[in-house]
From TrEMBL, chain A:
Organism classification: Bacteria, Pseudomonadati, Planctomycetota, Planctomycetia, Planctomycetales
Occurrences of domain Circularly permuted ATP-grasp type (ranges): 112-489
Pfam families assigned to the protein according to its UniProt record, in alphabetical order: CP_ATPgrasp_2
Protein's name according to its UniProt entry: Circularly permuted ATP-grasp type 2 domain-containing protein
Originating organism: Crateriforma conspicua
InterPro entries recorded: ATP-dep_Glu-Cys_Ligase-2, CP_ATPgrasp_2, UCP005522
PANTHER family xrefs: BLR5612 PROTEIN (PTHR34595), SLL1039 PROTEIN (PTHR34595:SF7)
Automatic annotation (TrEMBL), chain B:
Pfam family, one: Alpha-E
Species this protein is from: Crateriforma conspicua
Name of the featured protein: DUF403 domain-containing protein
Highest rank taxon of the organism: Bacteria
Record-annotated DUF403 domain positions: 1-309
């Protein structure tokens, strides 16, 4: 199904290049042959920018032209300048391993990843559908639990999920939305088909890099931007603010919104402060807050001030020592009482993690069918659930070809990449799976798509994924930001794109259809 | 404004000012030794004495020589009040409140810190030219703070912090002269004395302003300029008056039932300065006057902490 839709967007954009392309690219009428990216070999991988003969794909010809005209040396110089500027601006994350809290910028690659308009519309529709089903699932699972009663998802999976929060049973978040901010990881395989790799429903990070990558690219390549008809992303903070305001408790006219951070030593602290600054709201830590009469207050120089909406970037388990971990100093005692009383709104709602347990993930296509009666627009990566006996046997017999993932790990931890692992590592994972099958899934090793990436002064293909950000105000009011974080595995041959594992990022250019707003308008 | 944020802004600003003043101490001393006959006075030990941290110094250094004192004041990251440490704390504080600062303000601190940290990593003795650049960076930061941020309560906490710190450091620069002068009373009125007083005025960027008002170096007039000049932005009276003004603005914005002791303390100091003159200072002993002043400045800072940063359920 995905393969079909994939070929349909390709053929459509190839069969109707005429007027659109001419409008967009005054220097290169569409009748001219598409440019070839000189000295670049895409290998046998699906390349996002060019086809297997290094010819520009539709919507990428302006960019390919530009790269051909600029020397590798110039590109490298500009990239270094951009990286220096980012360091100077403090667009950094904290590296935990270092006692002094060393900061690093996420490595940045200057060659953007282009997403053609028609592919984007396919992705957008798929993500809206998916988040719709996931929010329905969360309401259900903390309510009547029809989906397990009807046997669509095994009850055992829910009961044993580390991220199921019995404390949240019976809660009804405002507008029926549990997950207001989602960052879903997408990948494309060797045929170009888009798959959902995972749903990040807790505190997905990275959107600050989307905005800053765009800002530095606009500064450095203004004309290229105009000609490429890139859709804007910089209204994200305003949209996020609107989303947060829409959650305010009933009867509150001018809600006080704040971002809750674990503090300056958290690896995503830069992002927390950036979002607070861009929205013009307070950035608070747990110690800045207190609960009195089931209301949440900030300690200010003017005394106590009530808060109505918290965009919390603190994990569930640390939110409230009265309800979750007693030893947490990051949260606020009594926060859940205030939440239950309806005096504070939390984004995302506590408990959303159950829906991005990697085993539950395997059931999302079934959720889409169960709740919406629809066929998934975006497919999951084929997934074996080790709890299932047949699946488990298959996984244990094929560890050398599969990727095995623990249900509750993130950041590239708890993963076995079968083909790259030693026999001893495979042996160890086999043992782990047999001991605790509930905790593991396995997926075939996909050949992730690549994008030309600057290595020294020349271009080499590097594997990428894409994390678009979805804002959900109500089941019918959903925004997908036209763009997202393209993460790139900078090591040759590597499939691991996490920044904690040596990955970097690229700007993501979603191309506008005629009539759609562009970043330069 | 969040109490924690107000506190961090206040300290960030104090620490930036502290770093700037240390570079002023050092830049001026490095220039000053070029002008004076060899071994006339030792300029290095007094720089340590005015920090008030002589004991810490003695535990970590064996001699009061030029490389040791410069390293101590500029780059020693074990010493919490060195220029590098001050900038590091200032940057940490700024990082914790960066959403309330203008982007330019944070970027300048970040840049400034890296500039000094990179110099420290090079492990060569910094020159007067380096300290000149530090002073430029500090002036840039002050300009950016004033020119890019709303002059709201956050700015007033920053302004208060830098002026309290500046008043303290101006008094310590003046105190350097006390330590220098005391062993050699005979030098009073000599060319050497002239050079020394001029150097002190240069340390607070006040040499030209002083010349315009008084033309010639005169001890009483220099001390008066340092303490009581109403127009020069680094004089003690000017700093205290500015800090007191910012406190008024803060108090107005944070109307509260219970009395604020910081305001009372700063008003008290302001009145005392207004009712004292340079003759009384010199008669009573300049060093004693400065000592008392520094205690009063500390008290104001402590009162500010109680008034605004310790917000409890009952507030």
């Amino acid at each position: 199904m995905s393969t079909e839709s994939e070929s349909s967007w390709q053929s459509q954009s190839q069969s109707s290049p005429g007027d659109t392309a001419a409008d967009a690219h005054p220097h290169g009428p569409a009748s001219q042959p598409l440019p070839r990216l000189i000295d670049y070999d895409p290998g046998e991988f699906f390349d996002e920018l060019v086809n297997d003969r290094s010819i520009a794909r539709p919507d990428t010809e302006v960019l390919v032209d530009m790269i051909n005209r600029i020397s590798g040396e110039t590109l490298a110089r500009r990239q270094r300048a951009i990286e220096r500027a980012m360091y100077r601006m403090g667009i950094t994350f904290t590296v935990y391993s270092d006692s002094r809290g060393t900061e690093k910028i996420m490595p940045f690659d200057i060659i953007p990843r282009v997403v053609p308009a028609i592919l984007w519309h396919h992705i957008e529709a798929g993500l809206k559908q998916r988040i719709g089903a996931l929010n329905r699932f969360l309401s259900d699972i903390y309510g009547p639990q029809n989906i397990v009663n009807d046997g669509v998802i095994p009850r055992e999976l829910v009961d044993t999920s580390k991220d199921f929060r019995p404390q949240c049973m019976g809660l009804t978040p405002p507008n029926g939305v549990w997950c207001h901010i989602t960052g879903t990881d997408l990948i494309r395989d060797s045929s170009g088909t888009v798959y959902v790799l995972e749903d990040n429903l807790r505190c997905p990070s990275g959107v600050s890099y989307v905005l800053q990558n765009r800002a530095v690219m606009k500064k450095n390549f203004p004309q290229l931007f105009d000609a490429s008809r890139v859709r804007p992303v910089n209204d994200y903070p305003a949209r996020l603010y609107n989303t947060l305001v829409s959650m305010a408790p009933e009867g509150v006219r001018n809600p006080v919104v704040a971002v809750l951070t674990p503090g300056v030593y958290n690896s995503a602290y830069y992002e927390h402060s950036f979002l607070a600054q861009q929205m013009g709201v307070e950035l608070v830590e747990g110690r800045d807050l207190m609960v009195k009469d089931d209301r949440v207050y900030m300690r200010t120089t003017e005394g106590l001030q009530q808060v109505h909406v918290l965009y919390r970037r603190v994990d569930d388990m640390f939110l409230d020592p009265e309800v979750f971990r007693e030893d947490s100093v990051l949260g606020v005692a009594g926060l859940m009482r205030a939440y239950r009383a309806g005096n504070i709104a939390l984004a995302n709602a506590p408990g959303t993690g159950i829906a991005d347990d990697k085993v539950i993930y395997a059931y999302v296509p079934k959720m889409i069918d169960y709740y919406l009666g629809e066929t998934p627009i975006l497919e999951n990566v084929p997934t074996y659930v080790c709890l299932d006996e047949d699946d488990r046997r298959h996984v244990l017999d094929n560890l050398d070809t599969l990727v095995v993932k623990a249900a509750n790990e993130s950041g590239g931890y708890g993963i076995l990449i079968g083909p790259h692992a030693t026999p001893a590592e495979r042996e160890k994972f086999g043992e782990l799976i047999r001991e605790n099958p509930r905790n593991y899934i396995a997926q075939p090793t996909l050949s992730l798509s690549r994008v030309p990436t600057l290595v020294g002064e020349s271009l080499e293909g590097r594997h990428v994924d894409l994390r678009p950000y979805i804002l959900c105000r109500s089941p019918t009011d959903v925004d997908v930001i036209p763009g997202g974080l393209t993460r790139v595995a900078l090591k040759r041959g590597s499939l691991v794109v996490n920044s904690s594992q040596g990955g970097g990022s690229k700007d993501t250019w979603v191309v506008a259809n005629p009539g759609e707003e562009t970043a330069s308008t | 404004m969040l109490a924690r944020v107000a506190e961090s802004i206040y300290w960030m600003s104090r620490q930036m000012e502290r770093a700037e003043n240390l570079s002023r101490f050092l830049e001026v001393t490095l220039n000053f030794i070029l002008d004076q006959p060899e071994n006339l006075v030792d300029p290095w030990e007094p720089l340590v004495q005015v920090t008030g941290d002589t004991q810490w110094y003695s535990e970590h250094y064996s001699r009061f020589d030029r490389p040791s004192v410069i390293h101590f004041l500029a780059f020693d990251d074990r010493y919490p009040n060195s220029m590098l440490s001050s900038l590091r704390y200032a940057r940490e504080n700024a990082r914790g409140v960066r959403e309330t600062l203008s982007s330019e303000t944070f970027e300048q601190i970040n840049d400034f810190y890296h500039f000094v940290n990179d110099a420290a990593l090079q492990k060569v003795e910094p020159t007067a030219d380096f300290f000149d650049q530090v002073r430029q960076q500090a002036l840039l930061w002050n300009g950016i703070l004033d020119g890019t941020m709303s002059h709201d309560i956050g700015w007033h906490f920053a302004n208060f912090g830098r002026l309290i710190e500046r008043a303290d450091k101006t008094s310590r620069i003046l105190d350097v002269k006390y330590f220098n002068l005391l062993p050699r009373v005979d030098d009073v009125g000599t060319a050497v004395d002239d050079i020394q007083w001029s150097a002190l005025l240069l340390a607070i960027s006040g040499f030209e302003a002083y010349r315009r008002e008084h033309h010639l170096i005169d001890i009483e007039k220099v001390v008066d300029f340092f303490i009581f000049n109403r127009r020069f932005p680094r004089s003690i009276l000017s700093c205290v008056a500015g800090a007191d003004w910012s406190l008024s603005q803060i108090e107005d914005a944070c109307s509260s039932a219970h009395p604020r002791s910081a305001k009372q303390a700063s008003l008290g100091l302001r009145h005392r300065l207004a009712n004292t003159n340079v003759k009384e200072v010199l008669a009573g002993g300049m060093h004693q006057f400065i000592d008392t002043l520094q205690l009063e400045l500390n008290d104001i800072g402590e009162a500010l902490n109680q008034d605004y940063f310790q917000v409890t359920l009952h507030a």
